[in-house]
């Protein structure tokens, strides 16, 4: 799929050759920096945007020339509002009524209200609902026409983390029960990891990596993905830690995840480790975060759960420590490789 926009500054390559395949009944999460082309891809799939080139298939049927209405989709788009002058029930049945689907509308409403945990709220108007309830109505409305594919663009964007979490779990159950193939765009990585069978990492209109959440977390395919997915330390590649670990790269910097560091408090335990000093310590919720400073002045973050900290570390500021980072978990990089801003050709 390719989508180039003509702009005054030239051709803008919003989507620049991506190939996404979604297995029936699965959830695919699209992740990527702002402006990387996620919404554009959903709009192309939905038929709201005409591709520069590329095609959309449902099973083996080429649907590229079909209009939006003919594609059998349900969608909840970024900031997509409910009809305020219609009740929840009327919002949900809007699609089936427009399409004269000839189904038992009352039964459909009851089924979808139950599925989305909104039983009893069918007669309310959107202003009488909480944000989370409105989002669930939007999902129910998207499901009302029995879509072949559901497209969700940051459906829980503006909600507080607890509500998001419960909606997320609800969504997963709904998708499993209905068996509808789903593509969701989210900025929230925890959300993607929690929900998705597959994740697709976008950058500048192309796919950097795709795979199961575990694969992407375990084996990031590029410095961009490693930096984008989860915490990382950035180190100069000639620093003590990198050299002591015997890691070689021709790149000027090296990344490592705080969770991949091994920290010892006795030199005897790790005679080949790089010595450092606990420079600072912060309690952030259930995690204790240490800032370690190597003797060459380079700093790293090291984070452990509070329980592990109490059992194993409980280090003091100023204390000497010995740090190892397995070379297999280090990755050389240069800063331009991490840049997620799109290019104008
Ligand atoms: N009609 C248009 N004309 C010109 N440029 C466009 C048009 N629509 C989108 N773009 C550009 O294409 C790029 C991709 O936009 P898109 O909305 O797909 O990004 P996104 O990944 O969804 O970002 P966000 O996470 O901020 O929602 C952006 O830089 C945007 O400015
Ligand atoms: Mg978007």
Could you please describe the fold and organization of this structure?
The strands form 5 sheets. The protein has a 6-stranded mixed sheet, sandwiched between helices. A 5-stranded antiparallel sheet has the order 13-17-14-15-16. The protein has a 3-stranded antiparallel sheet with strand order 11-12-18. The longest helix has 18 residues, at 161-178. It is of the alpha+beta class and 345 residues long. The chain contains 10 helices and 18 strands. The two termini are 18 Å apart. The protein is 27% helix and 27% strand. The protein is elongated. The chain folds into 2 domains: 2-225, 3-Layer(aba) Sandwich (Rossmann fold), CATH 3.40.50; 231-335, Beta Barrel (OB fold (Dihydrolipoamide Acetyltransferase, E2P)). A hairpin with a 2-residue loop joins strand 14 (274-284) and strand 15. The site of magnesium ion (MG) has 4 residues, from helix 1.
CATH class group of the largest domain: Alpha Beta
Mean pLDDT across residues: 91
State which percent range the strand residues make up: 25-35%
Bound small molecules, which ones?
adenosine-5'-triphosphate, magnesium ion
In terms of quaternary structure, the protein is single chain
Largest sheet report: 6 strands, mixed
Unreliable stretches: none
**Secondary-structure element order, N to C:** EEEHEEEHHHEHEHEEHHEHEEEEEHEE
Overall geometry: elongated
